Amino acid sequence: MSASPLDGIKVLDLSRVLAGPWSTQILADLGADVIKIEAPGKGDDTRAWGPPFLKDSDGEEELSESGYYLCCNRNKRSIAVDLRQPEGAELIRKLAAEADILVENFKVGGLAKFGLDYESLARINSRLIYCSITGFGQTGPYTDRGGYDFVAQGMGGFMSITGEASGQPLRAGVAMADLSTGMYATVSILAALRHAERTGEGQWIDVSLLDTQIAMLANQSMNWLVGGTVPGRLGNRHPTVVPYKTFDVADGIMIIAVGNDGQFRLLCAELEMNELADDPRFATSRARMVNRDDLEGIVQDKVRNLKRDELIERLVARGVPCGPVNNLQEIFEDPFVEARGAVHYFEREDGVRVPTVAFPPKLSKTPAKYTYRPPTVGEHSREALADWLALDDTQLDALESGGAIAQHRKQD
Asked: Out of 58, 178, 211, 261, which one is annotated catalytic?
């Protein structure tokens, strides 16, 4: 196996919650050495965001890691550092001097009081890529506000187009503003890393949840900018593609997603309604959108008494995009998951299996790695500091006895 693409890249992770840890987990999956900086004792807030929590090997006792924490902290080493102590802040500065990348999501200006802001660290490491993730950015009218995914989904317009037409605005079932911000942060970090490799020059990346949520409106935002019409909620309908929604069938609900005129003709043939393929009301994508209520009603009548899996098999054979609406149990029991290796298990020394959803892309030469399970708070304080800063036991003992760092026992 070839070396991972980010082997030798050092990342200092001062982020919490989801967007930052999501970004640094991706970097770690690609081979970067990520050190997660946590407060002694408590650690990352998301450790306590349960239930559910990981359970011991007997499946009885709850351990300290929540499912939320476990989702975005694999392949990292944890150092417990007290930033409030001068020795703790100085330790972070020394680590930053060795780092290629730093990711943080403190409130705007929150790290300046520790001398850990971009300007301060750039003076000691000019090639440092410093990524700040906030709710509303480093500039603009809302810089002093704290930001969460839910707020960004609401303010960014996403909730106004999510939900049934007659119902309340809804947020997505997962933290899409956080996750997409983490992805944009990662792409930006990798672009900045390429620049730094060419020039030796680092930079400051300012990424916010609200900026990202606005960008993720995609075609809906352009529909407003081009057409001047405020999109509304359409439930499971698509704003411009028809039929593209959920339909009730005899034993549940399924999706039919017809994306072009050719697929519509295939649908008509399979449902024995060939006359609709040439009907001027439905023959083109534009016509189907204008007459969506009539067409969707016809399709619904055709499929109402059909069995879901049988109909899916028929439509798939015809080349019509479709599928079931699975719950979490159903998708993780789907043969796709095993065939694609979509779940990876870490085996701990005490017999506990720690599940994780695998890195999705399959790189033929440099696949994602799974080196470290999500760490306990400060699990690697001494090990990682010795690796990055070549500190010896005497120096580490002094830091630990003074309270600047904490070394937590591995679970074994």
From this structure: 178
Please state whether beta strands 62-66 and 53-55 pair in parallel, antiparallel, or not at all (unpaired). Answer: antiparallel
What amino acid occupies position 411? Answer: Q
Q: Which is it for the CA torsion 360, 364, 365, 371, positive or negative?
A: positive
State how far the Cα of 182 lies from the Cα of 13, in Å rounded to an integer: 13
Sheet strand arrangement including 244-249: 244-249, 252-257, 322-324
Q: Which of 83, 128, 127, 98 is nearest to 33 (CA)?
A: 98
Q: Which amino acid is at 238?
A: H
* Pairing assessment for the beta strands 33-38 and 252-257 based on DSSP bridges: unpaired
* Half-sphere exposure at residue 262, Cβ-oriented, CA atoms within 13 angstroms: 3
Least Cα distance to 27 among 161, 150, 160, 129 occurs for 129
Low-confidence ranges of the chain (pLDDT < 70): 1-2, 409-412
Token pair belonging to 295: 């067409």
- Judge contact between 127 and 202, C-beta under 8 A: yes
pTM for the full predicted model: 0.94
Angstrom distance (rounded) from CA 265 to CA 269: 6
CA gap 341, 357 in Å, rounded: 9
Q: Kindly report the number of other CB atoms within 10 A of residue 306's CB atom.
A: 17
Give ∠ CA 268-272-273 in degrees, rounded to 5: 55
DSSP 8-state class, residue 284: S
CB 320 within 8 A of CB 269: no
DSSP 192: H
On whether the CB atoms of residues 234 and 289 are closer than 8 A, the answer is no
Closest by CA position to 258, among listed 298, 229, 309, 222:
298
Q: What is the tens place of the pLDDT at every residue in 299-327? A: 999 999 999 999 999 999 999 999 999 99
Dihedral sign of CA atoms 40, 46, 50, 54 in order = negative
State both tokens at 313.
């098999």
Dist CA 326 CA 334 (whole Å): 9
> d(Cα 320, Cα 31) in Å, to the nearest integer?
39
The SS3 assignment for 111 reads: coil
Q: What is the pLDDT of residue 411?
A: 46
Q: Which domains, and CATH codes, for the chain?
A: 10-216+338-406 (3.40.50.10540), 244-328 (3.30.1540.10)
**Is 178 among the residues known to form the active site?**
yes
Asked if 202 contacts 122 with a C-beta cutoff of 8 angstroms, the reply is yes
